[in-house]
Structure formats: C-alpha cells, structure tokens
Write a structure and sequence with these properties.
By secondary structure, this protein is mainly β. Helix content is about 5%, strand content about 50%. The protein is built from two helices and 13 strands. Strands 1-2-3-4-5-6-7-8-9-10-11-13 form a twelve-stranded antiparallel barrel.
C-alpha cells in the first residue's frame, strides 16, 4: 500500500509577554473633614471585592484555545459563543456552568459534512494552576469525489498556568488521544481502516495590550495504524500569530508551520511542500460571544 505522510498544523512555544507594574504615590494630606461612620460604611458596601489574580468568571473571547489546541478556559454559565475557523469550520459553545462547557463543531457542506460534539470540564482551579478534561466525538462524510466516511472519538487532559491578573496571559499544555475509523467506498479500504491519534501541545497566550495578545503553539501529532503493524507517523509543527479582541469578539491571525514529518524512525523533510509558503499556512479564526 503506498504510504503518505501529512504534517498537520501548528504551533509554537515562546516566552510570553507579561506586563508587570506598580503605582507608587505619596499619601495625600486630608484637607476635608473625615466622612461619618455611616457614610464610610455605605461606601464600603458599594465596593466590589477584589478579584483573585487567577480566578475569574469572565473569559476574553478566544481564550478557550491557544491557536489550535484547547485551553482550560470555559464560558461562564449561560454564555454562548460562535467561532469560525478558516471559513469552513463552525463551532458553537455554551456554558452549562462556570466550569463546564459543551460545544458542537460542524463543517459547512461544500465538499463534506461533519459534526463534532465535545464537553470540557475544568475540575481544578487555583490562583495559578487550572486543570480540565476534554471528551469529544465526530462523524464526517465526504461527498465530493470518493465517498469517504470518518468516525471516532476520544479525550484528554489540559493544564494552564496563569501568568497575570485574571489569567489573561497563560501557559497551556494539552494531551489528547482519539481512535478513528475511515471507510472509503469502492477501494481496498472499503472495509474500513482504524487509526489511533495522539496530539500534544505546549502554548503561550501573552497579553500585549488591552486589545492584543500574542499566540505561540508547538504541536506534535502522531498517527498509528494497527493494520499496518502499528506503523507510526509523527509530525511536528509551529503556530504563531496575534489575537485582536474586545469585550465580545476575538480575531486570530497567524500561521501554521509544519517543519518535520517521520514514518517510524525515518525523517522526511516538509520543505519541498512548504517552499512556496515559508511562513506557514495562513490561519484565521473569528469568535463572537454573548
């Protein structure tokens, strides 16, 4: 059987940009009479309690991912978001609780149709570290060209390390495993072929300003084909870009740059394929939440 290796997307690890500062000013000399105890109590009652550095219900749009890999962020209870990846892939999410998010991904029916439901549960949260579990499944059918059906599911663990107030900058780690099957009609694979896929990422989301974040992600993707004596295909890739965001929207603009592919212990250069895209494949994602 002819062999082919495709190195998938993205991402990269870099040192995040985190702003640290402190305001220092002398204590002013009071020139007005001190407020009465009743007035002081009223003022204190209207003040909001200070928020812990890492814990918050509000998520900046797009922060439930780095570039491609998921983070531990979940939508607050009752909030909905829609994300469009590369025009062709849509993704709805809903916050069932502050730490529980359900999502449904789908493709627009141009060459294929697919549905990909998933659940993310953040089961641990401190001021610095967050942990979450992710479970997903999927069904995809190509109707352009060969009739191809792909199905499967899996899950994994995610971890974030907060680097700033409200965890607006963070390191992200993820490891997921999926079992997938494919059936290609009228070919030698019409009886189906099974693969086991592993995805590992380390990424950084670094807040540069009130409206811009830097994104870096390093990713390793592995495919094992049991029918081929457990032959293993491995791809390494880098992803980088920026996120421009507001209160309800976020736009990711970046590149996904594969740089190495391997079949078992044999390395294959991807440069002949990437010579016309030296920066990588363009990446665009848009998120709106309400």
């Amino acid at each position: 059987m002819p062999q082919s290796v495709t190195a998938i997307a993205l991402a990269w690890v870099s040192v995040p940009v985190v702003a640290l500062g402190q305001w220092l000013s002398p204590t002013p000399v009071p020139t007005q009479p001190s407020p009465s105890p009743e007035s002081a109590a009223s003022t204190r009652s209207t003040e909001e309690p200070a928020e812990a550095p890492g814990r918050t219900k509000q998520m900046d749009p797009g922060d439930d991912r780095v570039l491609v890999g998921s983070s531990t962020w979940t939508l607050p209870e009752g909030m909905v978001s829609f994300t469009d990846y590369e025009v062709m892939l849509g993704h709805f999410s809903y916050g069932v609780a502050d730490n529980l998010q359900v999502s449904l991904g789908f493709t627009f029916p141009v060459m294929q149709v697919a549905v990909i439901p998933s659940v993310k549960w953040r089961f641990f949260e401190s001021d610095i570290v967050r942990l979450a579990g992710l479970v997903d499944a999927g069904l995809m059918y190509w109707f352009a060209g060969l009739d191809v059906t792909v199905y499967g599911g899996g899950g994994g663990l995610l971890a974030d390390v907060c680097l700033g107030q409200r965890c607006s900058s963070f390191l992200s780690f993820g490891a997921t495993v999926q079992a997938m099957g494919a059936d290609i009609a009228e070919t030698e694979l019409s009886g189906g072929v099974t693969t086991v896929n592993g995805n590992f990422h380390v990424g950084v989301v670094g807040r540069l300003s009130r409206v811009v974040k830097a994104l870096f992600e390093w990713r390793v993707t592995m495919f094992a084909v049991p029918e081929e004596s457990s032959r293993v295909f491995t791809g390494w890739s880098l992803g980088y870009g920026i996120r421009i965001y507001g209160k309800r929207f976020g736009v990711d603009v970046g590149f996904l740059r594969p740089f190495l592919a391997m079949v078992e212990d044999e390395a294959h250069s991807v440069e002949p394929v990437m010579k016309y895209l030296p920066l990588g494949y363009p990446w665009l994602a848009f998120t709106y939440q309400w």
